Amino acid sequence: MRPERLTLYILSGIVAALVSWDISQILLELARNISGGTLPFRPDFILLPFLAFFFAISMVATEIFLSNPTRYRNNFQTLRSYFFKTILWSAIAGLCAAIFTFTLYELTSLSAGDVKRFVWCIVGLSTGICEGISWRSRSMEGLTDKGNKRIKNTVLFGSLAGFSAALIAEKFSQNTSFSKEYNEPFGFLAFGLILGALLSFATSPTYQVALRAGEGIASINQKIIDEEIRSGMIRDLPKLKPRGAFQFVVEPPNEGANAKEPDVIEEGLSIQLPNGQPITIGGGDDDDIYLPEIPSKCAEIRVKFPYAKIICHETSAVELFPTLRNESQDGEYTLWHNQIITFKNPDGKEFYRFVFYDRFLDPQ
């Protein structure tokens, strides 16, 4: 798992915890002023719904933006479509946790620590459910066994985060050198940190580094092949170097161009990139990915899991979109999920586009 992913999840959890604490304290103070200094209800009726909401929306947003790090506008549109659903789900979960708190305090002899562990588990569980439902509706794996396992993991890890954070908060409350007024905010902070860390592991995608063939690489059908054979003018087609080191993620059907040349690259096919081995791309006979009319060895991709870099030997023949880093002096760039790579010949008449994926089986 990439350290950036873990860091972003932890930061999202911490920010959500601090924001929910600050807003709930403002509302509680306002309620005290209105009611003459005493609250007419338990603070949990404000604290828990806000905690559940901010945890849920922050984790859903983090997963959406990490799934498509180069599609900012699309990510905001996706997040907007889930925003009100997340408000509803998290508000219900927060209110249920608050009601359970009231019930357990009034009708049972459980200690304050036991009650906190129980209701924080509910908040963590609800966060896992919100994140899992959001992911399932967007993912190709949503209805598979792997998808079901992922949702179970988010629910389990969310509950575990709540339980662990409650234990930590209880330990600090027993420490006489630790000021009591900081017990609750510190517990929220620990909750956010642990929740972010555990959900980053629970939601870690299935990494499979690949290039998907796009525009410029036509899909070949049998009629075109037959016509070219009759006319004697058979086109030079993009293909993989047949040495066994490269393969398509899903092998194409044994028909059309692939019946005679199984390594022909067609639009929509994805090339799995091996780890620890340089992959040359260009129009030379020795290039691993052969593209007609493109300069020989115009680029090279090196995969060192979970990262991949592209070295552009012919900078005029290679374009990256978007370019997430400052322009490299040596033509070397780090590739990112959903980044588009275009290879073209000097006159611009021939071009081939590929989309780079480093989590091929997750939401596209």
From TrEMBL:
The chain crosses the membrane at residues 7-26, 46-66, 87-105, 117-135, 155-173, 185-202. Keywords: Membrane, Transmembrane, Transmembrane helix. It comes from Aetokthonos hydrillicola Thurmond2011. This is Uncharacterized protein. The keyword Transmembrane helix applies. The keyword Transmembrane helix applies. The lineage of its organism: Bacteria, Bacillati, Cyanobacteriota, Cyanophyceae, Nostocales.
